[in-house]
Design brief:
The protein is an alpha/beta fold. The protein has helices at residues 3-20, 34-44, 64-70, 80-84, 99-108, 123-136, 150-160, 181-184, 200-203, 206-216, 292-298, 321-335, 346-362, 373-390; strands spanning 25-30, 51-57, 75-76, 89-92, 112-115, 140-142, 167-174, 221-228, 237-245, 251-257, 265-271, 274-279, 282-288, 308-313, 366-367. It folds into two domains: 11-143, 3-Layer(aba) Sandwich (Rossmann fold), CATH 3.40.50; 147-319 and 338-390, Dihydrodipicolinate Reductase, domain 2, CATH 3.30.360. This is Dehydrogenase.
């Protein structure tokens, strides 16, 4: 063989090796509703380095023609199983009761999995999904995009670093999740026990429940009060008030609704060394010069209070949101990057939601230390059967 021919063969071999080792994750998306389309646009815009969208599958057949025209190079698969054969990772954006089984199937096929929130409708099936993820050794993440918000990152940092001292009370009034009846009428699966496993706690405030435990840790118990269809023609809850008890003695109040205008989104966390207020995208820290417990011991004036400073805590602009979760997931697959929102964490906020449903149904406090997956699952099944009967 001539020298120039040897060089040609070598170059071709090198090129093939480069292609094999390129840092690329081939994505498939299951579910092409509005959120699935949004993720597709991000992957196809080039804003997720290392991530390319290769295939999709969906029950939204009416959207496929426009998608084909916009993205002709993306394979449209007739089934979820077919799609799995073409990809390295799957992004599951179907109605969330389907998430656990679809994720389990993907792990079984050796795929990495990113699920939309919430993790599922009940902790029983999500626990099975988490086990499948652990057994597979694949990367597992959940689209808790609000964990990427610099505001909540900063609140978490201040709480977890001990800046507030021992926690006393957590209050989150989050009633700015307004949804009109027209929103609920966009799909027969919306705001149903079968289609979503609930209402505001499962579709909207699931983000806040996740952030709550991400910032402060899980409570020991919850007691909840709910109104079902308080402001809408729906069977599930659109108004919730829950009382929480945390390890160490701190208490909490969580209030959410989808029928108030104007709504409020105000998070207050009081501790031994002061109080944080997160509202309107800013954080105010009312900082005690000395801790309340220390002041209480040394003070002799019946009406005195610790000296308190009003501090404005700087918060970075922006935040990566959905794209940030996608980038981290891609980098975790390629380079082992640590995830801000591991998929296994999805069971935590879901446990809070499920416990609130159980508490409201039973009219009593629910102990999370002895949480029973089966007890809640039976309640949900009963509600689904009753819902079918009413229809």
């Amino acid at each position: 063989m001539k020298e120039d021919e040897k060089e040609t063969v070598k170059s071709k071999s090198d090129e093939e090796e480069i292609i094999k080792t390129m840092d690329i994750v081939r994505y498939g998306i299951a579910g092409m509703g509005s959120i699935g389309m949004m993720h597709a646009d991000k992957l196809l815009s080039g804003s997720i380095p290392g991530g390319i969208l290769c295939a999709v599958c969906t029950g939204h057949t009416e959207k496929l023609q426009s998608f084909k025209e916009k993205y002709p190079d993306v394979r449209i698969c007739g089934s979820y199983r077919e799609m799995l054969s073409y990809v390295d990772a799957v992004l599951i954006a179907t109605p969330h009761p389907l998430h656990p089984q679809m994720a389990i199937e993907a792990f079984g096929a050796g795929k990495h999995v990113l699920i939309e929130k919430p993790a599922g409708a009940d902790t029983k099936h999500v626990r099975l999904m988490n086990k499948a993820a652990a057994d597979s050794g694949k990367v597992f993440a959940i689209m808790y995009n609000m964990r990427m918000n610099p505001l909540y990152k900063k609140v978490r940092e201040l709480v977890r670093s001990g800046e507030l001292g021992a926690l006393k009370r957590i209050t989150w009034l989050v009633t700015d999740w307004y949804r009109s009846q027209a929103y609920y009428d966009t799909g027969t699966w919306r705001a149903t026990w079968e289609g979503e496993g609930g209402g505001v706690l499962m579709n909207q405030a699931v983000h806040n429940l996740d952030l709550l435990q991400w910032i402060t840790g899980m409570p020991d118990s919850v007691q909840a009060f709910m109104q079902y269809g308080a402001g809408h023609n729906i069977q599930v809850e659109d108004d919730v008030t829950a009382y929480l008890q945390f390890p160490g003695g701190a208490t909490g109040l969580f209030v959410t609704a989808t029928h108030e205008v104007p709504g409020t989104n105000r998070l207050e966390i009081a501790g031994d060394r002061g109080k944080l207020v997160a509202e309107n995208n800013e954080i105010i820290f009312y900082r005690n010069r000395i801790s309340e417990r220390e002041f209480n011991i040394i003070n002799t004036d019946p009406f005195a209070k610790p000296e308190n400073w009003r501090c404005h805590v700087p918060v970075k602009e922006g935040g990566d949101g959905h794209a940030g979760i996608l980038r981290e997931f891609t980098d975790a697959i390629l380079y082992g990057k640590r995830l801000t929102a591991p998929g296994e964490d999805g069971i935590l906020g879901l446990t809070l939601a499920n416990a609130m449903y159980l508490s409201a149904a039973q009219g009593k406090q629910v102990d999370l230390k002895t949480w029973d997956d089966d007890e809640y699952y039976e309640l949900l099944r009963g509600r689904i059967e009753k819902e079918k009967y009413l229809k």
